[in-house]
Amino acid sequence: MELNQKIARDLLSIQAVFFRPDEPFTWASGIKSPIYCDNRLTLSDPKVRTDVEEGLAETIRKYYPDAEALMGTSTAGIAHAAITAHLMDLPMGYVRSGSKDHGRKNQIEGKCEPGTKVVVVEDLISTGGSVLEVVNVLREAGAEVLGIVSIYTYGMKKGLERLAEANVTNHSLSDLDCVAAVAAETGYIKKEDVERILRFRDNPQDESWIKG
């Protein structure tokens, strides 16, 4: 089984990715969504956690063989960066969403010398805004950001465009297309729902998908 399919099955099995096209969720932005994602649940299931961390390590070895350190996003990427770095025998740190207001007022936690070849570890990518903030902080500190690895991505147009503009690559273990296809194959959702879900992905502001 391909890695993206295995991770898709894992995410569905623990409802880290949860589809509800007939009863949409409402995001904080007010957008109606047929999907809810909480990849923190992967940490609570030992088998899924192992698949994810070994998958991240495999992906980093394949696409970023020169990686010298892993940097997690705060807070969801921290645990994944730590476990994966342990598997790979690499240094690890993380980037705060803002600088501390006490002590040394660090925003980067852990050692990150200028010139260090870094891979950013994220759990979920939607529009790409938060992970690119981390990339920018690391670049400003002099790190060479090789790219990003993530557990899952929606593959939204805005996110893809932002990553391209920032000249940074992302490799996800699985994505919405794969998870939706696996969900339909296993009877989790109806086959006709896949097209509705991908229409949402392509234009979240257009709610015509809700009517089927």
Structure annotation, total helices: 7
Radius of gyration: 17 Å
Q: Quickly give the structural class.
A: alpha/beta
> Would you tell me the overall average pLDDT?
93
Low-pLDDT runs: none
Give the strand tally: 10
* Element order: H for helix, E for strand: HEEEEHEHEEEHEHEHH
Label the overall shape.
globular
Q: Share of helix among residues? A: 40-55%
Biggest sheet details: 6 strands, mixed
Strand content: 15-25%
Intertermini distance: 31 Å
Could you give the order of strands across the largest sheet? 7-6-5-8-9-10
What does this structure look like?
It is globular, with a radius of gyration of 17 Å. The model has no long low-confidence stretch (mean pLDDT 93). The strands form three sheets. The protein has a six-stranded mixed sheet, with helices on both faces. The chain has a two-stranded antiparallel sheet with strand order 1-4. The longest helix is centred in the first third of the chain and has 18 residues, at 46-63. Helix 1 packs antiparallel against helix 2, helix 2 (46-63) packs across helix 3 and helix 6 runs antiparallel to helix 7 (191-202). With 212 residues, the chain is α/β, with parallel strands linked by helices. The chain has helices at 3-13, 46-63, 76-88, 129-140, 157-165, 176-185, 191-202; strands at residues 17-19, 25-26, 32-33, 35-37, 69-73, 92-95, 108-109, 117-125, 144-153, 170-175. Strand 8, helix 4 (129-140) and strand 9 (144-153) form a beta-alpha-beta unit. It has seven helices and ten strands. Helix content is 40%, strand content 22%.
